[in-house]
Amino acid sequence: MTQPDRRPAAACPYRTLFLSDLHLGALGARPDLVLAFLQAHRAETYVLVGDILDLWHPLLPHWSAADQAVIDHLVARKAEGARILYLRGNHDPFPDRAPQHCRVPAEAQEALIHTTADGRRYLVLHGDACDGRLFRAHIFTRLGSRIDHGLRRFERLLTRRRPDTPPEARSAVDMLLTSVNALLYLGRAHERKVLRLARRKQVDGVICGHFHIAGLHDDFGLTYANCGDWIDSLTALAETADGSLRLLDARKAPALLPGRAAAEPEFAGA
C-alpha cells in the first residue's frame, strides 16, 4: 500500500474542491497528475463528482500504484479531518463490488445540493442522467470502457513514449476520442439539459462532470460549472473562502479562473 503524504498539514486555500472523471483503473487515466494536483491544492471538502473509478476490465485489469496513491491520499485527508463526498457516475462500479483497497472513502450518492460560503445553492450531479436512453444503458457504458481500453493497449503496442515527453502530452488516441466527444456535444444542448434540472430544484446553478468538457459560465441564465476531467481537460473546480467558483487547470500556473465571468473564459483544454 502506498504511504500517504506525511508532510506537515498546510492551511487549506480552498473551501471546496470538485473533481470528476478521474477514471482510476483505466489505461487513459492520469493518476500521477491527479495526485500532484491534490497535494498542491488542499481543501476543507472534496466533492468527487462521479466516474472516479473505471474498473470494467476483468480480463485485463489495470490498477497501478499511482491509482492506489490517489485513493490513499483521499483516505489520509479524511483522517486529517477533511470532508469527502462522492457521487457515483455511470463508469463507477457498484460500491460493494469494488475491491476494498480501491474504494473511495465515502458513501456513494446520486446528487446533492451544495451551498457556497456566500449562500448560493448548486445542484451537484454527475451528468449522465441527461444522456439519451441508449447512452445511459449500462451495457453501452461497459462497451465504451472496453473500446477505450482496447484502443489504448493497441496504441501502446505500436508506440513507445519518449522519456522527454511532457507528462500532460496527449496521444493520438486521446485526440481522436476528444474529437468524437466534441462532436457528440456540439451545440451545448447538454448544458441546457442539466440547467433545466437545476431550475426545477430552484437553485442558482449546476455543478457536474461526465461530458469531459470543462466550463464555467452563466450563458443560459444560471451558473453552469463543469469540473472537466483528468483525461482530456486536466481541470477541477474550486470554491474559494468567499464562495466564488474557479476553474483550476493543471497545465497552468497560476490556474485560476473567475467564477462570475460574463462569458466563458478561455483556458487550455476547454
Descriptive account of the structure:
The protein has 270 residues and is an alpha/beta fold. Helices cover 28% and strands 19% of the residues. The protein has 6 helices and 11 strands. The chain has helices spanning 31-40, 65-79, 133-136, 138-158, 172-184, 189-201, and strands spanning 14-19, 43-49, 83-87, 108-109, 111-115, 121-125, 205-208, 215-217, 223-226, 235-239, 245-249. The strands form 2 sheets. A 6-stranded mixed beta sheet has the order 4-3-2-1-10-11, covered by helices on one side. A hairpin with a 5-residue loop joins strand 8 (215-217) and strand 9. It is globular, with a radius of gyration of 18 Å. The two termini are 35 Å apart.
Describe the protein's topology.
Layout: E1 14-19, H1 31-40, E2 43-49, H2 65-79, E3 83-87, E4 108-109, E5 111-115, E6 121-125, H3 133-136, H4 138-158, H5 172-184, H6 189-201, E7 205-208, E8 215-217, E9 223-226, E10 235-239, E11 245-249
Parallel strand pairs: 1-2, 2-3, 3-4, 6-7, 7-9
Antiparallel strand pairs: 1-10, 5-6, 8-9, 10-11
Helix pairs in contact: 1-2
In brief:
The protein is 28% helix and 19% strand. The chain has helices spanning 31-40, 65-79, 133-136, 138-158, 172-184, 189-201, and strands spanning 14-19, 43-49, 83-87, 108-109, 111-115, 121-125, 205-208, 215-217, 223-226, 235-239, 245-249. α1 (31-40) packs parallel to α2 (65-79).
Give the distance, in angstroms, between the N- and C-terminal Cα atoms.
35 Å
Structural shape = globular
> Structural class, judged by helices and strands?
alpha/beta
Helix content: 25-40%
User: Please, how many helices?
Assistant: 6
Round the Cα radius of gyration to an integer and report it: 18 Å
Tally of DSSP β-strands: 11
- Overall residue-averaged pLDDT value: 79
The poorly predicted ranges are 1-9, 253-270
Strand order, sheet with most strands: 4-3-2-1-10-11
Strand content: 15-25%
Largest sheet: 6 strands, mixed
GO molecular function: hydrolase activity
Domain Calcineurin-like phosphoesterase: 15-213
Protein name: UDP-2,3-diacylglucosamine hydrolase
Keywords: Cell inner membrane, Cell membrane, Hydrolase, Manganese, Membrane, Metal-binding
